[in-house]
Specification:
Distance between the termini: 46 Å
Order of helices and strands: HHHHH
Low-confidence stretches: none
Strand content: under 5%
Shape: rod-shaped
Structural class: mainly alpha
């Protein structure tokens, strides 16, 4: 699921109808379940992305250190690379476009998981917010 889709869902679901607080209170378990399912799927995807990134980083490390076989180079469509000094390796790894793309994908996935985690935390306290609103309405009406 894209981050923008999660944002759009939450934009709708985060609104509390002040005229129907009892129904809003009853929606909390449904919303918690909905976002927790999304959270779990996205967290599993994050773990998969982290593993894929580490594997790809290792392959690129082997590429820059000249340890890939001709067959592996052919499989990836890469030309052989000149050997580097150890001090130069980090510069090439940090500047590698393929690694950067995978790192950006990984960071976006982390942001999704963090956003979903914050939604769930908000839902966990939503009942208190609704109770406070009900108490305020009672107080304002003189009851």
């Amino acid at each position: 699921m894209k981050l923008e889709e999660i944002e759009a869902l939450w934009e709708v679901d985060s609104k509390i109808d002040r005229t129907d607080l009892d129904a809003e209170s009853l929606k909390i378990p449904y919303l918690h379940s909905k976002y927790y399912k999304i959270f779990l799927r996205e967290r599993i995807q994050l773990k998969a992305d982290e593993f894929e990134y580490k594997q790809f980083y290792k392959v690129k490390h082997e590429y820059y250190t000249g340890k890939l076989s001709q067959e592996e180079l052919k499989d990836y469509g890469w030309d052989p690379f000149q050997f580097l000094l150890k001090g130069e390796l980090s510069v090439y790894m940090d500047a590698d476009r393929d690694i950067s793309k995978k790192l950006i994908t990984l960071q976006v996935q982390r942001e999704k998981v963090e956003f979903l985690d914050s939604i769930i935390k908000t839902l966990n306290t939503r009942g208190f917010a609704i109770k406070n609103a009900i108490d305020f309405i009672r107080f304002s009406s003189g009851n």
